Amino acid sequence: MIWIIAKKELLSAWRNRTFLVAYSVFACLLATAAISGYRMYRQQYQERLHAAQETREQWLRQDSKHPHMAAHFGNFAFMPKTALSMFDVGLDAFTGTTIYLEPHRQNDFSFKPAEVRNASLRFGELSMALVLQVLLPVMIIFIAFASFSGERKGGTLKQLYAQGISFSQLYTGKFIGYGMVALVMLLPAVAMLLFVQLVFLEATAGVIMRIALLGLLYALYLLLFVGVALLVSALCKEPKSAVLILLAVWIANVILIPKWAANAGDNLHPLPTKYDFTRAIKTAIAQGIDGHDPSGARAEKLKKELLAQYQVDSTSRLPFNYEGYIMQAGEEYSSLVYDKHFAQLEKTLDRQNQISLWCSIIDPFLAVKGLSMSLSGTDYYTHLDFQTQAERYRRDFVQHMNRDMQNHSKLGDWDYNADRHVYEEVPPFKYRQRGIYESVKPYMIGLGSLLSWSMLILLSVVMLNRRAMQHIV
Amino acid sequence: MIKAEHLVKSFGQQQVLKGVTLEVKPGEVYCLLGANGAGKSTTINILLNFVKPDSGRAFVNNIDVEQHPLETKKYLAYIPEIVMLYPMLTGLENVRFFSELSGFSYSDDELSVFLRRAGLQEAAFRKRLQSYSKGMRQKVGIAIAIAKNAGALIMDEPTSGLDPKATNEFTDVIRAFCTAGRAVLMATHDIFNAVNVGTHIGIIKQGAIVHTLRAADISAPDLQQLYLETIQ
Questions:
Q1: A160 in contact with B, Cβ within 8 Å
Q2: How far apart are CA A33 and CA A25, in angstroms?
Q3: B155 contacts B187 by C-beta, under 8 angstroms
Q4: In angstroms, rounded to a whole number, what is the distance separating the alpha carbons of residues A184 and A189?
Q5: Residue A281 to residue A143: CA distance in whole angstroms
Q6: Is B101–A5 a contact, with Cβ atoms under 8 angstroms apart?
Q7: CA 20 to 30 Å from A300, out of A189, A209, A398, B115?
Q8: What gap in Å lies between CA A141 and CA A8, rounded to an integer?
Q9: What parts of chain B have a pLDDT lower than 70?
């Protein structure tokens, strides 16, 4: 019986010209998003690969010079564009692409695309994810708002019930019918993504797995909208009121709550200005973390300890270059300061993010947005992970250069030159992508939200089943 | 086959049924005659369990309608005042859809037989409902009722808006139902049709049945006289 209803809904959708036109427009939009996403990925991927090779080349080819000077020449960490960023660009435009790695300083991202792009970005980039998250629910609303209310107004609902079917049977049948329509709309997106990844990008098993999970995620999200649309339609006397309520739900989900969450994050946990942040770090390095341990005094204390340890009376008699040693010690101290301040900054950002994450309990759109970004490797936590790995690399590479100076040159000997051999010992930076579970972990709350909303709809249907018959006249 | 016992129903302040009792046995056609708002539709809606009565009970095939809403539907077919169908489906597909819902799977030939018996012209069978007139839709509704092969038929002013020829064809179909031993309950305000097709007539006024008589005992003019006197 359920299948008979589902079949009828599918047949009606298939014969509905308006629906077919809307579907074609939607498919075109999706294809546009896919093509532009792919081209952008391709271009940026090449650019970054090229830049990374070039800077590596420059690093290796620099003249023989003092190791610390060579370290100051610096290195670059390029955030690789993930293959799935063609699907969901996430925060890529706002987080920046490159970190300049140099001694003494932990730099932030530079070259944020949002800084150089024109007004187009203000309206959000048209990515496939955006089309699926924002546009598809509206289409589902317009397809399904009259599913019950239209039949009630038209009078067919009475005839349906007179045939001896229950509300839950009718709901399930319609859910399968409209759900299949929704999935058919999702299908081209997943197919396009898979096709591009397999044919043009030599997708790895991990990427395929991520695409599969993205498919499941969006299927759940869209079915949730189908469920809500059918439920609202069943409860409304008029199709008009059903569509109004559903659009209100959509606006709250897609615009109001996310906007509120972002504003609340800013207001409750404000970020320091860039100026204040850098000055605080500078002061802490000069005056000591606690403000009572100036750098001069720290060096003096270290010198005394070293002299006592090696039982010599002058730094020039130490078996290594004292300046190299003190340089590395300074580096380690500044690292301590950076760790502290960046940790605070990350904590604030994390608190801001937490507001969005908690809001995703009531807002499936936010839940899907977070999960989708994390699966595409374009979310905040992936960028943070990149920053952490780049910083670890910076410290290793600066330490390597300082140690070379400490071990191979004498005190005051600033003529000691490191050569290509030393440069080569510094491996190029390579970002190691996180596993799927690790990527998704911060957003588990969203997954919970999607599942509990599904349960809630199921429960409502079961409860309504008892009194639906009285409802319809 | 169809039974209502002391049905009482109020919508807000207004009491629309004040204890309606009626019974339709197999082979009978009961015409419920009354003005607009007399309570005809409410009685029918209670029998279909679309409205819950404040008190009283309704039965189809001796099964309580309120307690077994799905079970009782198996034994009844329903034709509303305006048969509404799915515009995207053809006449044939509409009959198929509704029959499948009540558990029958008929071949195209069988479905055509039902439509023909309901009086729909052959050419319209495979056209979409969008192009149908009201009379044609009504015939599809009748075909759906025939296809259901149920013991009870409940109709809410089925002939309103039909032309005389269609009404006549409709009357024949009802007679066929009746001779097949089915119980028919029909709400109407068409007096001549009531005398013509009915075996029993009940006149309902302000939520109460004030006269019950056998159609054989009264002529159309007399019934009209009685009806007008009653509803004054």
A1: yes
A2: 12
A3: yes
A4: 10
A5: 56
A6: yes
A7: A398
A8: 19
A9: none
Chain B residues with CB under 8 Å of A163 CB are 73, 98, 101-102, 148
Phi, psi of A79 (to 5 degrees): -70, 115
Q: Which of A17, A163, A170, A174 should one mutate to test binding to chain B, selecting the residue with the greatest count of B CBs within 10 A?
A: A163
Residue A18 in contact with partner chain B when CB distance is under 8 A: no
A165 and B CB contact within 8 Å: yes
> Which residue, A382, A47, A9, is CA-closest to A171?
A9
**Average pLDDT along chain A, 473 residues, taken 10 residues at a time:** 89 86 90 88 85 85 80 81 85 78 75 58 74 92 90 87 89 94 92 88 85 95 95 90 94 92 86 83 77 72 83 80 79 83 86 88 92 91 87 86 79 74 83 88 90 93 75 55
Count of C-beta atoms within a 10 Å radius of residue A431: 16
- Distance between terminal CA atoms of chain B? 32
**Which of chain A's residues have a Cβ under 8 Å away from the Cβ of B89?**
8, 11-12
Long-range contacts of B143-146 (CB under 8 A, 24+ apart): B143/B91, B143/B95, B143/B111, B143/B114, B143/B115, B143/B117, B143/B118, B144/A159, B144/B77, B144/B79, B144/B83, B144/B94, B144/B95, B144/B98, B144/B99, B144/B114, B145/B77, B145/B78, B145/B79, B146/B77, B146/B114, B146/B117, B146/B118, B146/B173
Q: How many CA atoms lie within 13 A of B129 on its CB side?
A: 23
A158 interface with B at CB cutoff 8 Å: yes
Q: Is the Cβ–Cβ distance between A160 and A1 less than 8 Å? A: no
Tokens of A271: 């970020």
Please state, rounded to an integer, the average pLDDT across all residues of chain B: 90
Predicted pLDDT of residue A290: 66
Which residues are bridge partners to B204 per DSSP? B34, B209
Res A276: pLDDT: 85
Integer Cα distance of A209 and A433 in angstroms: 14
Alpha-carbon span A373 to A440, nearest angstrom: 9
Report ipTM for this prediction.
0.89
Residue A468: predicted pLDDT: 61
Report the C-alpha gap between B55 and B130 in whole angstroms.
41
Dihedral angle over CA of A298, A304, A306, A310, nearest 10: 180
Residue A243 in tokens: 């569509």
Cα–Cα distance, B131 to A5 (Å, whole number): 23
Among B40, B41, B50, the residue to mutate for chain A (most A Cβ within 10 A) = B50
Q: Which of A1, A11, A159 sits opposite B78 (nearest CB)?
A: A159
B106 neighbourhood in chain A, CB within 8 Å = none
Query: How many angstroms separate the Cα of B87 from the Cα of each of A78, A81, B94, B128?
Result: 59, 51, 9, 6
- The model carries a pTM of 0.86
Report yes or no: A165 and B70 within 8 Å, Cβ to Cβ: yes
Token output for A392:
């670890």
* Amino acid letter for position A40: M
Q: Is B27 exposed, middle or buried (0-12, 13-18, 19+ CB in 10 A)?
A: middle
Q: Could you tell me which chain A residue has the CA closest to the CA of B46?
A: A470
Is the distance from CB of A328 to CB of A406 less than 8 angstroms?
Answer: yes
* CA of residue A390 relative to chain centroid, distance: 18
Is the CB of residue A447 less than 8 Å away from at least one CB of chain B? no
HSE-CB at A341 with a 13 A cutoff on CA atoms is 25
Query: Both tokens of residue A24?
Result: 């074609």
CA distance B231 to B227: 6
Q: What tokens were used for B50?
A: 């679309």
Cβ proximity of B73 and A163 under 8 Å: yes
Read off the tokens for B162.
Answer: 């039909």
